[in-house]
Amino acid sequence: MTSIADLIERYVTLSNHDDIDGVLACCANNVMFETVMNPRGSMRLQGKDQVREVLAGTMAAFKDRSHRLASIIVDGNRVAAETVFTGTALAELGDGVMPGDQVAIRGATIFEVENGLIVRICDYS
């Protein structure tokens, strides 16, 4: 049986390898994905189809894209992960980010797991 921490590490590793199907295999069919970006607002997606779209968009928007887990804390079925994202923008992305710009974002992600699958992902940046 895979531990919750191993599941999250697998999710991140598969994302770094642009393996959308592998990432989604870590998730429940009704997975909820939220991004909280203060003060610019938030995004909330429900289900694998919607999450697939945002993953594909993110993967296409950056080259040399990488997520790194700086730390991870497991509490029951919840995981708090400090994350570091880096990549090179391939398009104009808003907030002054232009093609060729290096992007580095430090944030936190809260994961919830049920029955060995991720049911909620909430990114804070």
From TrEMBL:
Residues 8-121 form the SnoaL-like domain. Pfam families: SnoaL_2 (PF12680). Transmembrane segments: none annotated. InterPro entries: NTF2-like_dom_sf, SnoaL-like. This is Nuclear transport factor 2 family protein.
